[in-house]
Amino acid sequence: MNKFLLLAFLILIIGVPSAYAHPFLLDSEPPQAGNAAIGITQIITKYSEAVEIDFSELKVFDGNGNQIDNGDTAYYEGENSLVITTSPLEDGVYTVTSKVLSKVDGHLVRAAVIFGAGETNVDISLLEAQEESETTFLPEAAARFPGIVGQTVVLGCTISAIAIWGTQRKHFGKENLILINRTYRSKFSKITGVALVGVLASNFVMIAVQTFRLETSPIDVIGTSFGTTWLIRMIITIILLGIWFWMERKPRLTSKKHVPMLVASLVLIFTTTMLGHGTATELAAPMILDYVHNLLSSVWIGGVIFLAFVILPTLAKLDWMEKEKIVLAILPRYSGMITIALGILIITGPTLLWFLESDVTSITNSTYGFLIFAKIFLALVMIALGGYFQFKVQRPAVKNLGGAIGAGVFGFGEKPPDVSKEGFEPPTIEALAYKKIKKPIKASAITGIILLGIVSLLVNSSLPAGEVQTAEAQTATFGFSSILFSEQAKFDVSVLPVGVGPNTINVIVSAIDGDPFSDISGLKIKVSNPQRNISPIEISTI
To answer: Domain residues for 490?
Structure first.
């Protein structure tokens, strides 16, 4: 019994959301391509997520292109719908233009509705003259890309410094420790400093793009929900810069001195979640999954960048034996950390995608799906390079050295070679793990940065449901017609429009030769959508 109660509780918390990622038009009254009664005085539009009323507006135009609304756009039933009033509409065709600002990610989305009043036929091709809404917001993606890379580098490097580098410091001799500490501090400060400058620059570009989009002042932008998230992000960035300057003044960076940067970085990546698709669902589970996914991605990609641009340069001035010992001691720890992160990512990624879009067909046929596949491909490239480090670098290097790093450091249970023994020949430079890993690890780091570029496009793109909805709203052919046959009857089927909202279904039944049936009382019409897991629904006949 308790298990069933727990399951019910989880379902209530998690739910099954309908996500579009950006406030796309779901429905309207009057409906798209529909007809309303003469004399109506208000138009209602409904959206996939909450919108900012101060930067959202509806406009109503008559058949001559004259604006006829009262300019009083307001919320209708909550923040997901708007209403505007007009004088009583006469017989004719009317166009409603919609421009709404998302309360989640700050994207400005446009749409249009064409309807008729009275018996006027609606020409859907008029929609072609309306401004199309973007499904991928490229300026926003470009603005946020440096910030995503920067926060990944800072968080990943900080976690790796504590989990990996902090455990190796004790293995350096006194003669090398001072040099190593100085070099490490320099390299760590350089990479995290550049990353934080990238985050700061990204913040300024984000607010600039939003100011341009909304055609207003930065102060007004900060007053929106997006602006509040941006302000939090900017404050955390300034705090991180303060921590960076504090660390820069320290002669030696111990694990404890990395903790303040770790805490602030964990808060910083949460601001990305606040602007993400998970938040648009208004459910806790997708938000948590999104945050965990961002965190583990930072561990993975940031860890690779830390190894390539901090650890290896730090070890450059050591002799070959010390260098090999440390590299071969770090690789297993690094591999273990990344393996754990990947194991969880494999769970969080598909689960989050299921919350956002469970229709596989929609994913594969959309721009969002293409970006997902590109992201998976780049991730597989990084995994392949990780396998190369493990099987083509680490194991052969240990074997060639004869267990040079010893049980106390590496754990392979072999003794270090006696370099003073007559006939001992050190490995060639090409055989050293340090040498073999340098170029591949940099290639992996660059691949990770490209992957983050794909992520930036994903978080600024419409989910398949929103993309399909936009395509349907912009196509000039909303109708569908087909002729079907059974053994004794012919069915002329037409649907108008085919899209979100009310649809009119006409079915004309006749004999094969075209003669009408005298009695069709036993006829049953059912509507279904297997792709959306909608079972057949019987509809009444007129």
So the answer is: 480-539
